[in-house]
Design a protein that fits this description.
The longest helix has 10 residues, at about 65-75. The protein has a three-stranded parallel β-sheet, with no helix packed on it. Helix 2 (about 65-75) links the parallel strand 2 (about 50-55) and strand 3 (about 75-80). The protein has helices spanning about 35-40, 65-75, 80-90, and strands at about 5, 50-55, 75-80. The protein is α/β, with parallel strands linked by helices and about 110 residues long. It has one domain.
Length: about 110
């Protein structure tokens, strides 16, 4: 992951801010740490591509708005879990190494 697009207009940073944990409006530029991903995946998958991930309300059923944005921008992956965690990490001064694993179309998974 290289970045995210929050299409939910929601944030986990609501209510009174505790300044000891971090700023109310954290900087998210540089939040994702691709070097850590490369180190963790050394000797792993043959192809790693950096991409933007879209946060949606329900990844199984996109709203018309969400689907339109994803299609028009070419965002290849949607999630309904990651961005809230990313915003909390940024709030507390952390960085993330996030990996999205996609299975090839037509290939059966070993998992049930």
């Amino acid at each position: 992951m290289q970045d995210h697009a929050n299409l939910t207009f929601r944030s986990p940073l609501v209510g009174p801010n505790d300044d000891s944990l971090g700023p109310r409006f954290p900087v998210v530029s540089g939040l994702y740490c691709p070097q850590s991903v490369r180190r963790a995946l050394r000797g792993g998958p043959t192809r790693v591509t950096a991409a933007v991930v879209a946060e949606v309300r329900n990844r199984r059923r996109l709203s018309d708005f969400e689907e339109g944005v994803v299609r028009s921008t070419g965002i290849p992956v949607v999630t309904d879990e990651l961005v809230a965690v990313a915003l909390l990490a940024a709030h507390m001064g952390g960085r993330l190494a996030a990996v999205v694993v996609l299975e090839e179309k037509g290939r059966k998974s070993d998992r049930t």
